[in-house]
Every structure is written in structure tokens, then in C-alpha cells.
Design a protein that fits this description.
The protein has helices at 56-68, 70-73; strands spanning 2-9, 12-19, 21-28, 38-44, 49-55. The protein has 83 residues and is α+β, with helices and mostly antiparallel strands.
């Protein structure tokens, strides 16, 4: 996974780029506020790590965009390996 971020500081805009492996995906729900649920994508790289939080609406938009372009991906296989 690659992460590209633009960050503003006193010198102007700095562009940061990092890569890593997705370690965990967590779905955080609040039973009292179901619309406040979000998905956390946790990643770790050689020199960086982080968490990307996506709201339910953002996940739906992402899912819709990937579904539209699924034919461009060709055959997708999900592979699971034992640790």
C-alpha cells in the first residue's frame, strides 16, 4: 500500500510518500450512535506506520468506485497464508 500526503507547514506545502503492508482492518461500531461507525486500516512500513480512518459513507463511495472499475482489474484472487 502506498500513502501520499500533502502537509502544510511554515515553509509551505511538503509532500510525504510512504509505503507499507496492511496489518489489520478494524470496524469500530458505537451501538448508541450507529451512524458514527468507522473502518480503521492499520499499516506498517519499514520507516513508517499509521492508521487511516474511513467513515461508513467513505467506504460506500470507495466500494462503488471499485465496483465500477472491477472489469479493469481482471481476475482477482484473494490469497490467505498461514502464519
Amino acid at each position: 500500500m502506498k500513502v501520499k500526503v500533502k502537509k502544510r507547514n511554515k515553509d509551505g506545502v511538503v509532500r510525504l510518500e510512504s509505503s507499507g503492508v496492511i496489518r489489520e482492518i478494524m470496524i469500530n461500531e458505537d451501538f448508541l450512535r450507529p451512524k458514527g461507525a468507522y473502518v480503521s486500516v492499520c499499516f506498517k512500513g519499514k520507516e513508517s506506520s499509521g492508521i487511516i480512518d474511513l467513515s461508513v459513507k467513505e467506504v460506500e463511495i470507495l466500494n462503488e468506485e471499485v465496483r465500477k472499475k472491477k472489469r479493469l482489474l481482471g481476475d482477482v484472487q484473494v490469497m490467505k497464508f498461514e502464519k
